[in-house]
Amino acid sequence: MYILIQVVVFVVLVILQLAVVTAIPLLHGTADLLLLWVAGWALLSRGRSAWVYALAASVSMAYVSAINPIVPFASYFSVVLMARFFQNRIWQSPIMALIIVSFAGSLIQSLLSFAAITVSGVSIDLQVSLVQVIIPTLFLNLLLALPVYAVGRDLHRLLYPFEVEI
User: Fold this and answer.
1) Could you write out the DSSP letters of every residue in 40-85?
2) Averaged pLDDT in 10-residue chunks for the chain of 166 residues
3) What is d(CA 39, CA 84) in angstroms, rounded to the nearest whole number?
4) How far apart are CA 101 and CA 110, in angstroms?
């Protein structure tokens, strides 16, 4: 039952990412709900489900995006690695860890995308890309990080309630 709920949540997130979030850009940058979900879930869960979400998000974004498939794989798995690192270090402040992981993950994803586009032969000015795409993407991801984390935390508590010893 837990796996079915998580699959449904992931499918809803992909649909929201492709249909709604990409239709609301800030300049030319858009938020990445899947990156934020993977970051939040990796900070919340202790098991392998964060790695499964990262793999599913990477495969789905590699399938629907025109960017090199290495970019989503590297960015989502680096988010999980960072989240696991911060989970062990500053778990007392999960909101701070979420902000750091979301910012770093968004920056990694944007810079990897810029590098992949540049390597493919498209000439893009770094300053224009920074102002028009990377900074607005960082802003939108930081703006949506807390609501996505709150939904993820509620779902995590619903699926994996705390055990109380008597």
Assistant:
1) HHHHH--SSHHHHHHHHHHHHHHHH-SS-THHHHHHHHHHHHHHHH
2) 82 90 89 92 86 91 89 95 83 84 94 92 88 93 93 87 63
3) 9
4) 14
Q: Give pTM, 2 decimals.
A: 0.90
Q: Is 155 exposed, middle or buried (0-12, 13-18, 19+ CB in 10 A)?
A: middle
* Cα atoms in the 13 Å half-sphere on the side-chain side of 118: 10
CA distance 99 to 93: 10
Angle between helices 135-159 and 94-119 (to 10 degrees): 130
Does residue 82 contact residue 107 with C-beta atoms inside 8 Å?
A: no
Helix, strand, coil % in the chain, rounded to nearest 5 = 80, 0, 20
Distance CA 51, CA 101 (A): 15
Q: How far is CA 45 from CA 66, 91, 94, in A?
A: 31, 12, 12
User: How far is Cα 147 from Cα 134, in angstroms, rounded to an integer?
Assistant: 21
